[in-house]
Fold:
Amino acid sequence: MGFTAEYGLFLAKCVTLVVAVLAIVIFIVSQRSKAKQSPGELVIREPGKEYKQLQKRLEQALIEPTAQKLWLKTEKQKEKTRIKEEKQQAKAGTFAVKPVLFLLSFKGSMDAHEVETLRKEVSAVLSAAKPGDEVLLKLESPGGVVHGYGLAASQLQRFRDHGIPLTAVVDKVAASGGYMMACVANHIVAAPFSIIGSIGVVAQIPNIHRLLKKNDIDVELHTAGQYKRTLTMLGENSEEGRDKFRQDLDETHQLFKAFVSDMRPSLDIDSVATGEHWYGKQALEKGLIDEIATSDAWIIERMQQFRLLSLSYARRKTFIERFTQSGATAVEKAALKLWQRGQKPLL
Structure:
């Protein structure tokens, strides 16, 4: 029994040492890779071509095996003829160039840190867009911090300032800060059961002053400026501080309402800026959106009219960044699930 205990202790020490060494190595490697990493790159895809390839594969599968060879031969001949005609049109200067529909995607978190990639994607589109081109933003966000989503909405405003039509499509949720972004678009499309609206402001802060006081723990807070701090977590809060805190919330709400009104002047802002959310069809009746459809249906309908280009700015992440981000994402998803269970019916 003594030998087993000693061996277990020795094994535990070895494992601890190996884990510590691995942690140090990983940290050094991540720091070096962070220093050497490229700023990022713009990834471009053509969903139209991908869709047509899927369509052809399915068409081929539906044909009897004995007739597939003939079908493939016919399709190759059609493709050769098409390419030849396009070359001839290009030489003659009669080649019709389709306008481009740029596809962007924004899946927002609470702190809206995705705005860093959004601004690069917006800049890329603005640098290359031609008259007749449009932008489609697939948007998903339950909202978050005011300054983060305010900046994200301002990035989308750049399209309007340059006269480039912007359509926002919401398949799941665009609430609060998410709707602040959506309302910048010239046209808002939403799925029937997507969550829209929640034009309101919320803030909360725990206060453990009585617990600290009960245990004879003093907290000192010194400020210069009457309202440098209104409510605190550790100190004793006053009615004056609470009033000022509520006043700040109300002012933020008024700014939010004014922004939505400027973007959608036909909207009865007082009837929808109550903090409530609505499903897609209800939002259409209230004027919060313009059309009911999913992003897939909306895009496929425009494949003949536009050339589709999907843009996403990708930055290489270090191991530490990937690890911490995955953990933060898991926590955020868990918090969102709890909120959904408490606030919305389950289907």
Q: What stands out?
A: Strands lie at 41-45, 100-107, 134-141, 166-175, 187-190, 195-197, 277-279, 291-292, 307-314. The longest helix spans residues 2-36. The chain has twelve helices and nine strands. The first strand starts at residue 41 and ends at 45.
